[in-house]
Specification:
This protein is mainly alpha-helical. About 85% of the residues lie in helices and about 0% in strands. Helix 1 packs antiparallel against helix 2 and helix 1 packs across helix 5. The radius of gyration is 20 Å and the shape is elongated.
């Protein structure tokens, strides 16, 4: 099954740009959150001076690390799935809309919202 894509569509361009922005934000926030929450959990375990609490904190950190890795590679999963479902046209659309253009779009929306 092939997915037909019209790259000249303004709505498709907006969706792709917003998707890229969302993925970039998630890929920045998740590792930071993992470090902060993992540090808090491990510190709690150490301050409790209980071997069981330390082990529990380590397991929680390990589970969060696995979840963070899965979230971080979401964009790769999307590209693989779209490669199976769609043709090369979607990849050209995705690649031709750069992150810089996406950032400019966010700035333009912020300016428009403040007016």
């Amino acid at each position: 099954m092939l997915l037909a894509i019209d790259c000249s569509s303004a709505s498709l361009e907006t969706v792709i740009r917003l998707s890229k922005i969302l993925l970039q934000i998630i890929q920045m926030i998740v590792p930071i959150g993992l470090i902060v929450l993992g540090s808090i959990d491990l510190a709690r375990g150490v301050f409790a001076s209980d071997e069981g609490a330390i082990k529990k904190a380590q397991m929680t950190f390990f589970k969060r690390a696995i979840a963070a890795v899965l979230v971080f590679f979401t964009s790769m999963g999307v590209r693989v799935i779209m490669g199976i479902v769609g043709n090369d046209a979607w990849r050209e659309c995705w690649d031709n809309i750069s992150a810089k253009e996406s950032d400019e779009m966010v700035c333009n929306y912020q300016i428009d919202l403040n007016v």
